[in-house]
Amino acid sequence: MSTEAEKDCKRGFTAESLGTCVTVNGSAYTLLRLLGHGKGGYSYFAEREGKQAVLKQIHHEPCDYYTFGNKIEAESRDYERLKQAGIRVPEQIAIDTAAERVVKEYIEGPTVFDLVRDGLSTEPYLDQVRQMAAQAKAAGLNIDYFPTNFVIQDGLLWYVDYECNDYMDEWSFDNWGVRYWSRTPEFEEYLNSHE
Questions:
Q1: Is 188 a residue whose pLDDT tops 70?
Q2: Is 179 exposed, middle or buried, given 0-12, 13-18 or 19+ CB atoms closer than 10 A?
Q3: Alpha-carbon distance 191 to 187, whole Å?
Q4: Contact criterion met (CB below 8 Å) for 139 and 78
Q5: Are 131 and 91 part of one and the same domain?
Q6: If exposure means fewest CB atoms within 10 Å of the residue's CB, which of 107, 108, 122, 129 is most exposed?
Q7: Are residues 171 and 137 in the same domain?
Q8: What tens digit of pLDDT does each residue of 94-141 get?
Q9: Which residue from 123, 94, 106 is spatially nearest to 181, judged by alpha carbons?
Q10: Total domain count for the chain?
Q11: Phi, psi at 152, each rounded to 5°
């Protein structure tokens, strides 16, 4: 990266850093929009040399319902596990272990959460998520079936998070995830507590 680009980029940023330029392994990315804030990090719509990407900054905020190990190592390991299981995920473009940043392919489209919130049916995507669930289970994994983690592009369902865990039946799609794929009491409760 040029000295000029280094001058324009900052090493650290916060959730309010839109427009900020940050580096990942020496490459400059401009943060354009906050896509989401999950239990592991902040994900931003970002741009580098006119190309779109998602830049995830790992955070260490407390989470009372989930225990983490090394989050940045998990991002890399889980990406490989998901690929081996045949789960449709965005390509990992770069990972910066020291800065705890991951850059991945941007998948444009609505999330399943958007559909449910807007009163639209998720029925056309249930076969696809159940296929992903079967592939994950065959690999001994669960993915996070919460609907913000799934984007629809050209009729295809993408799992845009890299989180996966060892398989446990209680966290399967049919036992847990499906509760959030329609306007259920669980979905309504989440919606009311996150407005």
A1: yes
A2: middle
A3: 6
A4: no
A5: no
A6: 108
A7: yes
A8: 999 999 999 999 999 999 999 999 999 999 999 999 999 999 999 999
A9: 123
A10: 2
A11: -105, 125
Same domain assignment for residues 180 and 125: yes
Copy the structure tokens of residue 15. Answer: 């959730």
Boundaries of domain holding 135? 112-193
Task: Check whether residue 88 and residue 129 sit in a common domain.
Answer: no
Determine phi and psi for 75, rounding to 5 degrees: -60, -45
| 15 lies in the same domain as 85 | yes
Q: For the whole prediction, is pTM greater than 0.90? A: no
Residue 149 backbone dihedrals phi, psi, to 5 degrees: -90, 5
Nearest by Cα to 139 from 86, 100, 192, 95 = 86
- pLDDT value, residue 63: 61
State the CATH number of the domain containing residue 18: 3.30.200.20
Instruction: Work out whether the CA dihedral 126, 33, 90, 172 comes out positive or negative.
Output: negative
The answer to whether residues 71 and 138 belong to one domain is no
